[in-house]
Specification:
heterodimer, A: about 290 residues, mainly alpha, two-stranded antiparallel ribbon, 2 strands, globular, B: about 230 residues, alpha/beta, Rossmann fold, 2 domains, 6-stranded mixed sheet, 4-stranded antiparallel sheet, 10 helices, binds adenosine-5'-triphosphate, binds magnesium ion
Chain lengths: ~290, ~230
């Protein structure tokens, strides 16, 4: 029973982690909380749903399509809504982000309507697998497996590739990165593309898991993922992964323990507790002021 | 080679540079000296393109670079070693050098550059995998200089390389600066240590609250009674 809940928690937490990574990477580089990030997750879910229901592709192809589409949307959002405000106060950019977020969810409401849409049952045939006492659905394994793969891929990009190293350099010291010949604008676009792709993958996985895609799904998922990013230490990539997993597991365990009416409050309660003890989050570095 | 004309920079209400003009010729070491807050760093950052300027013109080898973005300026051959070294603390020594060579497309050339940096600063080679934040101040200065050399700049802007270093180390760093210059790189050197700076420079500018108050041959300035009183502690 506990094993089963744990696996449920890890599956949910992996999705939070996928979304949280986008918040943390963008914040790491331009100290902006990208409020529209939850909506990118929602858009990704819709694109995946369209691909599956209209074009009959399998879940993997749908996810790839959703990731590419969200990448483009993420990059364009940065270009038109954030970049022109880079030199203004941080509050202006934040307000712009909230505007984009409202715009995207209203657009989805207009196009897809208010009802939640479901993935066709053929999208991913679910089987139950027995491990000892626990019954695990193949869907959960899929979620955990894909999230792990994506995070390993991200780790590789950030640690080993030239653009990934430039991301770390820019996030450590924006001005000095520019002085070294790094095109910081390109690094920022790349960061938005990466974060949006991960969120879209999360969107498709959640859509399949709960069998529901709706215009407002980005709000709560986005808030929780943001809480996960802050919990892990905003700006820290391993922190976002850890924070996401922790939130997912405690949420599932909390529900199992009978606190299901507080389901959405659990994430924020943990966040407050951790920040009281460690204001920079679990793996956060000292926050240094960026000029 | 580098020409700064009538440069004015304000930070909000603070006038950091008032109509500054200066010049660096190919092959020279030009020193820029002045007290805290005189505007030295502001000049270097304006040249590097990371600071919006209010008016004036900066040109390099005849090309106007006033509005050129910083990464393009590095590609054209100007690289800066910023004040306080600013190494990427949580990246390894090797990765820091790689970042210095970011504008270099050819991977073999980057590796050759790293080897060159290791020959110039053997200490860095021993510490190649260490995170930059674990280096001593002197080692960080070497890393910052090695990093800037990675793009094979024609002109290097050095902002207070002696800051916070023991006298022995300062001598060593200045020797290396002279070596770098001898191997063909032009140098613009910002220093508070006017004595050392004037001893290796060909020419110098003396800056006071955003204005050039004196300029000329470094040797002559070192003899100038005003300069001796204000900057050489006599
Ligand atoms: N980001 C900033 N915002 C506001 N004022 C600034 C900023 N940077 C520099 N100044 C001001 O501009 C003036 C010139 O500063 P600058 O850093 O260029 O001096 P400096 O000659 O390099 O001094 P130091 O020797 O202390 O490094 C100073 O009065 C400083 O207070
Ligand atoms: Mg300075």
């Amino acid at each position: 029973m506990l094993l089963q809940q744990l696996i449920n928690g890890v599956a949910l937490g992996s999705v939070y982690a996928l979304i949280a990574l986008g918040y943390t990477m963008v914040y790491g580089i331009i100290t902006l909380i990208n409020f529209a990030h939850g909506e990118i997750f929602m858009v990704g879910a819709f694109v995946g749903l369209l691909a599956v229901s209209k074009y009959n592709v399998n879940v993997f192809v749908a996810m790839a399509v959703a990731m590419v589409a969200s990448m483009i949307i993420g990059v364009v959002i940065e270009l038109i809504a954030y970049r022109p405000l880079r030199k203004s106060s941080r509050l202006s950019a934040l307000i712009s982000a909230i505007g984009v977020s409202i715009f995207l969810s209203s657009l989805a409401l207009m196009v897809f309507g208010a009802d939640a849409k479901a993935f066709p049952s053929t999208a991913f045939p679910v089987r139950q697998i027995k491990i000892g006492e626990a019954e695990i659905s193949s869907l959960q394994l899929l979620i955990i497996g894909i999230s792990a793969l994506l995070m390993l891929g991200l780790e590789f990009i950030v640690k080993k590739t030239k653009i990934g190293k430039a991301m770390r350099a820019t996030s450590e010291d924006y001005n000095t990165a520019a002085l070294m010949g790094i095109n910081v604008n390109r690094v920022i676009s790349f960061t938005f593309a990466l974060g949006s792709a991960l969120a879209a993958a999360g969107g498709v996985l959640v859509g399949v898991l709960f069998n529901a895609v709706s215009f407002n799904m980005g709000l709560m998922a986005g808030l929780k993922a943001f809480a996960a990013a802050v919990l892990g230490g905003i700006g820290s990539i391993p922190g976002a992964m850890l924070g996401g997993l922790m939130l997912g597991i405690t949420e599932v365990l909390g529900v199992a323990a009978g606190f299901s009416s507080y389901r959405d409050a659990i994430a924020f309660a943990i966040l407050v507790l951790v920040l009281l003890v460690k204001p920079t989050g679990l793996l956060g570095r000292k926050i240094q002021k960026k000029v | 080679m580098l020409k700064v004309e009538n440069l004015t920079v304000n930070y909000g209400a603070i006038k950091a540079l008032k109509n500054i003009s200066c010049e660096v010729h190919q092959g020279e070491i030009v020193a820029l000296i002045g007290a805290n807050g005189a505007g030295k760093t502001t000049i270097l950052n304006s040249i590097s393109g990371i600071l919006p300027i209010d008016s004036g013109k900066i040109s390099f080898s005849g090309t106007d670079i006033t509005k050129t973005p910083p990464h393009e300026i590095v590609k054209m051959g100007i690289c800066q070693v910023p004040e306080g070294r600013r190494v990427f603390a949580n990246m390894s020594v090797h990765e820091n050098l790689e970042m210095g060579g970011y504008s270099v497309k050819d991977k073999a050339a980057v590796n050759a550059g790293i080897e060159r940096a290791f020959t110039l600063f053997p200490r860095l080679k021993e510490r190649s995998k260490q995170l930059a934040k674990t280096l001593s101040g002197g080692e960080q200065q070497m890393l910052a200089m090695g990093r800037a050399l990675m793009s094979s700049p024609k002109l290097i802007l050095l902002d207070e390389p002696s800051m916070g270093l023991a006298p022995m180390l300062v001598e060593k760093i200045f020797e290396i600066i002279v070596d770098i210059n001898k191997s063909g790189t032009t140098i613009m050197l910002v220093e508070q240590n006017a004595h050392m700076a004037l001893s290796i420079a060909n020419r110098a500018y003396v800056l006071e609250t955003g204005e050039v108050v004196l300029s000329g041959i470094a040797k002559d300035l070192a003899e100038d009674p005003e300069v001796r009183k204000a900057y050489l502690g006599e």
